[in-house]
Model the fold of this input.
Amino acid sequence: MPGESQTTTAAWRGLLEPLRAEPARAAILTDFDGTLAPIVERADEAALPGGAREVLARLIDRYAMVGAVSGRRAADVRARIGLDGIAYAGNHGLELLLPGESEPVPDPSVGEREGDAAGFVGSLDLGRCEEAGLRVEDKGPIQALHWRGAPDEGRAEASAREIAVEAGRAGLEPHWGRKVLELRPVGGGGKDAAVASLLAEDGVDRVVFAGDDRTDVDAFRRLEELREAGDLTAAVRVGVVSAEGPPEIAEESDVTVAGPAGWLEILTWLAE
Ligand SMILES: [Mg+2]
Done:
């Protein structure tokens, strides 16, 4: 069960000491929903917990890079965090909004497949989705179907599974998250690619990344590859565990915490 195998404070401090010792060579990367911000019934109400913005602002001043890697649009995450000094990788890495920039840069690999997911969702019987309790969220190249808070979440999820099969046949990539199905164009993006492109910055050789869901495991794996290849001297993967999150979050992380409050405690220490 989540929470039973939480890493001790002494253990995570030991793993993260190389970052705190040389902040000019360190990157602090984090997912947003379920990691920085607690999961809420309506995704559009997600917000930072009290004190988190001040901690992040201190991290920006101190570390080579602070990055937010999210399934949301980059501009959406920037608006919720409210800090310009963070590099925002949005839509699971399909767009990048760097500090000081006003517009996100789309991943060029998506190219002409940009409208595939929207075209597929447009072809669905939206009455059927609504009846099953699925809410469609238009994220440009990615279309999301949510069922958190549906009158019958089980029925809504079953309906999402049928749609995922159809989407696969239509040439899209279905990705599952916490009570959400995302339909993405084939190729490009992924949080694995997002962390790699953020870390391509000169002089950064140590990183911590925290996440709570399946797409974050992609980033965990890429970070481990970069560490094994010698591109990183330290890659600390923090799994924010929850009852509804996938087991890989605890299995493939170096540090586990029980929720966003545990991650904020780590960030606060890094900022001291
Ligand atoms: Mg998350």
Remarks:
- Residues 153-169 form the longest helix (17 residues).
